[in-house]
Amino acid sequence: xxxxxxxxxxxxxxxxxxxxxxxxxxxxxxxxxxxxxxxxxxxxxxxxxxxxxxxxxxxxxxxxxxxxxxxxxxxxxxxxxxxxxxxxxxxxxxxxxxxxxxxxxxxxxxxxxxxxxxxxxxxxxxxxxxxxxxxxxxxxxxxxxxxxxxxxxxxxxxxxxxxxxxxxxxxxxxxxxxxxxxxxxxxxxxxxxxxxxxxxxxxxxxxxxxxxxxxxxxxxxxxxxxxxxxxxxxxxxxxxxxxx
Length: 244
Hints:
Largest sheet: 7 strands, parallel
CATH class of the largest domain: Alpha Beta
Strand content: 25-35%
CATH topology of the largest domain: Alpha/beta knot
Structural class: alpha/beta
Number of strands: 12
Number of domains: 2
Shape: elongated
CATH superfamily of the largest domain: SPOUT methyltransferase, trefoil knot domain
C-alpha cells in the first residue's frame, strides 16, 4: 500500500493502537501548533517503526502541549530492509545528505566506518539518527534504519558476517562498468562500503581485495564526490541485485 502524502507524517516513540491517546513531546507539540498551525480535529499520520502507520487527530491543544488520538491502522509494519550501508563519515552538511539518501534508497543498517583518510574525528550519532527519522517522515518509510556506532575499518572487517557480500567502491578498478561484477554475486545478503573524501588508502584497498567476501566495483569514468558516489552506488546495486 502506497504512503498517503497528503497528510503530515510524524514519528513518535509511543505504542500505537486504535483508541490510544498521548501528548506529543514539547518539540513536536510546538511544530504541530505553531509551524503547521493544526487545530483540534486536524488529521495526521503517526508511525513508530514498530506498529505500522496509523491515522490520528489532534484531540486537544494547550499552550505548550498537543494531545493526539490514534484512529485506524493505515499500513502494516514492513520488515527492515536487509541492505547494510557502511560509509566513511563526511563533513556535516554532506553527511546529512548522504544519510538521508541512504534511507530513501533502502538501507536497513547504517554503519559509520573510520578509515585512514576519514576527515571527521568525532561523529554525532544522535544527529545521524535524527536525519534518519526525518527522511523516513518525508518519504513514507515505516521501518526505521538502525544507526550503529562508528568503528574502525579493520575492526568492522574482522567481525564481518562472511555470508554477507561486501561491495566496495574502488576508484582504481580496472573497468568502468560495475554491472558484470554485480551480476556475478550469488548471495542475497549484501552490504555497500563507500570511502571518505580522500578515498581508501593503498593498504586498505589491498586488505579489502584480499577478503573472500568482498567485491570491488567501479562507478564509471567520472570522478564523484563521496556523497554522490554513495547515491550512485546504492542506485546501481538496488537496480541490479536489490529490490527494484
